[in-house]
Amino acid sequence: MTPVALARAGAPNPPLLAVRDLNLEFRTRDGSVRALEGVNLQIGKGEIVGLVGESGSGKSVLSYALLGISDRAARITGGAASFGGIDLLRADARALAELRGREISMVFQSPRTALNPIRRVGRQIEDVLRRHALARGSDLSRGLREGAVQALREVAIPDPERRLNAYPFELSGGMCQRVMIALALACRPSLLIADEPTTGLDVTTQAAVMDLITGLARERQMATLFITHDLALAADYCDRIVVMHAGQAVEDAVTESLFAAPRHPYTRRLISSTPGPAGSIAALAPVPGNLPDLRRSDLPACRFAERCERSDERCRRIRPLLGEAQPRGASHRVACWFPDEVRAADTDVASPGEMPA
Amino acid sequence: MTDGLGPLLSVERLKKYFPVTGSRGSMLHAVDDVSLVIGRGESVGLVGESGCGKSTLARLLARLHDPTEGRIVFDGEDIGALAAARFARSPERARIQMVFQDPTDSLNPRFTAEEAIGEPLRLLTPLRAAALRERVAELAAQVGLPAELLPRFPHQLSGGQKARVGIARALAVRPDLLILDEPTAALDVSVQAVVLQLLERLRRELGLSMIFVSHDLNVVRLLTERVAVMYLGEIVEVGPSEQVFNSPLHPYTRALISSIPGQGPRIRLQGEARSPVDPPPSACRFHGRCPDGQDRCGREKPRLTETGERAVACLFAANRVCSGQ
Amino acid sequence: MSAPRSWAAHARHVFTENPVTLFAALLFALLVVLAIAGPAIAPYDPLASNAAAALQPPSAQHWFGTDSLGRDMLSRVMVATRLDLGIALAAVTVSFAIGLPLGLAAGYFGGWWDRLVTRLSDTIMAFPLFVLAMGIVAALGNTVGNIVLATAVINLPFYIRVARAEANIRRGAGWIEAARLSGNRDLRILLVHLLPNALPAAAVQVSLNMGWAILNAAGLSFIGLGVRPPQAEWGILVAEGAQYIVSGEWWVSFFPGAALMLAVFTFNLLGDALRDLLDPRRRT
């Protein structure tokens, strides 16, 4: 069965990556910024999970923490993140360096700034291969070169032998992103983290890049964590979606289920504020209020409480956990004391912007 | 929506070419032979991907750049004739204003919000002192910017707040035409929704004409009555927004719409857009990537031909229109 | 985020936040006091010679000792502050007033204007700057005014470069286009929009330049150009004392040299403080 089918059936799919109760804060001059609180996340083998949230939701912070490349001011104050038996948060630098690029890879947001501007792209790919000693054949340099050509070919870059010698500034945005994907996938990792890989790209290029990533992911049974602020994009490509708000994971469901019946008030508002193929401007219902200041020491337990019309005293004092107040083993989990009830009639797939009133 | 006095803005065969450094005589055709009409109170969208020339066109119409050829006629006056550098002090300056894409980049970091909004008033109207402050307060209220934020610097404001300052500044001198260059692209989705609703409300209340430049077709469809699709410096399709969105005629428009997430089967475009430097004068610029292309497309350049409310520049579009697609 | 602080509160914050800045500010205050009131508060008349008390080492009556003509070194060093600071200030002001607008225009307009200004700047920098200063003073005449001119000329390229870079970075910015839409002509954009944004970087340059200009003036005087005896100026004082070092009367050169060092040090430290004072981003 595919991971999606397994998830829908509710069968346990031993997670490749399991994040439990992760707390992270940044020490700054003005106080501690509690960037992540109690985040729970699982990704199974071959599963494509979308991590959706606005800026300040903590989604990028989470991915950097998993790879051990957080800002120096970051402190993990609780929780665990296990990957294939290793606790990513407590592993030593050496173990992490072995994992990065080989088992877990990352594709970053703006490809031009993520690639070394003064090094030819072929060399950059060879660097990764050399680091993880994965060249083919006895002649190391030729093996590396062939490996790089192969990597470029796999991301559908035409004329790879010639492109090997190009510098990043000679390539278009879409091409650079493909090169970065080639870099990330050169060593066949089992988990790919893609942090807003298509922001800034044209919509046609975006479609092509997303097709490429998900195509390769399916082909190689590679788990993918796809981080984005674009809900519609996540809906199109992800098996499962986790919604984040102000450092907390608030909803976790299979894609169809999330859009058919979003249960967290924030998710509902997010969907209804996204312009879609149908609907009018008047129907756009933006999320009220602003993101709470994460430096406050008096943050409500559920960080959406101050923006939510349903919140009460319990929401401010006790944090609802994902899946709390729901039957055990439910696949559509929400972190809310007043989640929307699942409506029996809503079995059709709704797309963003088309939410029933 | 013209009221008989003629269109507000009439663009006639506008061209903007940039010389290419290093190659003598080579020209980059950023905007090539574009003609467009904007009526009074009409909202027109300008869509296309990066490199299509929509931002250059927007800046030409805002008179920040000088055209290489062609006319820009605003309310009967040929404003293209005056150099951009001198346009700043002409009476037409206050009638065409612009809202920029990146709210952070569009505000002087050393000006407070109040100073930013007040500057066009100071330079283009006789308002001073108390009257000026009043007008600034009125504008802030109109765009939903709390008055206590007026003494703040840009780095002390959120993205949505900065966007509002930019809009207030553009509206300060009561322009007839507002050009918006991707005003919500840099904003979060929920802030975007708020700003879009604000723009719609202002358009209705103030009767503005708007040119809305964007790559986000969903947003354009919501805010505009007509839309023009650009590719490599040329307009390839124009028509009422709903119609273009639901039944696009030009193959590029169809590919563009199919690429929007959630829009069903994707039309894949091969390769990349060709270079805008010295494009061949007698071939369709989409030839080579066009899924429907034929040999004739490489030898004959399609012209924008009108049928009713719609116009399309494709040698084979006529077939599609006639067959009622 | 809260409203910006007032200027006074901001200044107080800048100077108390960092102990180094406070230290520099105090030293600067000392220098200014000496420059203004030096002759009034000096214990002895700096020009009064007393052959009997020549070359006395530092003591209770003469804290810095006396020189070969029996003049009190402390008084001479204190009074020299005015001349040194004055020359440096005048030179830096002239350099700033000419270099900054030239650089801003070059960076903003580009084209032939940029080429012209850059050539000028390159030409000046092609010379070893001190030699160029020497040449200018030698050619135009041995006066204090010409020291100021020479120092101003050799410092021009620094201001041109800083201003040009600041203008160049910003010339395509959205807020410059918005300024044009608001009715600004190019000149007003340069003065009202670009200039304030270039000031923080220019301020650091001013501060570093002050130290450099003092050293320059002292250097020229040391080799006999510009300031003439019996005027008190640190460079001359060092020159006068140089011949006595070998014979063990170290204090004649030492104290003026130390004063020079302290002055340059102060201005270098002040550079960062000045930038913080002027940058609105730090006002929160």
What does this structure look like?
The complex is a heterotrimer of chains A (357), B (325) and C (284). Chain A has two domains: 1-103 and 189-357, Rossmann fold (3-Layer(aba) Sandwich); 114-188, no CATH class. Helices cover 32% and strands 21% of the residues of chain A. Chain A is built from 13 helices and eleven strands. A seven-stranded mixed sheet of chain A has the order 6-7-8-3-9-10-11, sandwiched between helices. In chain A, a hairpin with a 2-residue loop joins β1 (15-28) and β2. The longest helix of chain A has 18 residues, at 203-220. In chain A, 47% of the residues are buried. Residues 343-357 of chain A have low confidence and may be disordered. Chain B has ten helices and twelve strands. Chain B has helices spanning 54-61, 84-87, 113-124, 129-142, 159-171, 189-206, 217-223, 241-246, 251-258, 317-322; strands at residues 9-19, 27-38, 43-47, 69-74, 77-78, 96-99, 177-181, 209-214, 226-231, 234-240, 305-307, 310-312. In chain B, the strands form two sheets. In chain B, strands 6-7-8-3-9-10-12-11 form an eight-stranded mixed sheet, sandwiched between helices. Chain B has a four-stranded antiparallel sheet with strand order 2-1-4-5, covered by helices on one side. In chain B, α3 packs across α4 (129-142), α3 packs parallel to α5 and α4 crosses α5 (159-171). Chain C has one domain (25-31, 73-282): MetI-like fold (Orthogonal Bundle), CATH 1.10.3720.10. Helices cover 74% and strands 0% of the residues of chain C. In chain C, α3 (73-109) runs antiparallel to α4 and α8 packs parallel to α9 (234-245). Chain C is globular and about 75 Å long. The mean pLDDT of chain C is 87. Chain A binds chain B through residues 54-55, 158, 172-175, 202-208, 211, 229-233, 235-237, 269-270, 273-277, 279-282, 284-287, 290, 351-353, and chain B through 49-50, 158-159, 188-194, 196-197, 200, 215-219, 221-223, 245, 255-256, 259-263, 266, 268-269, 271-272.
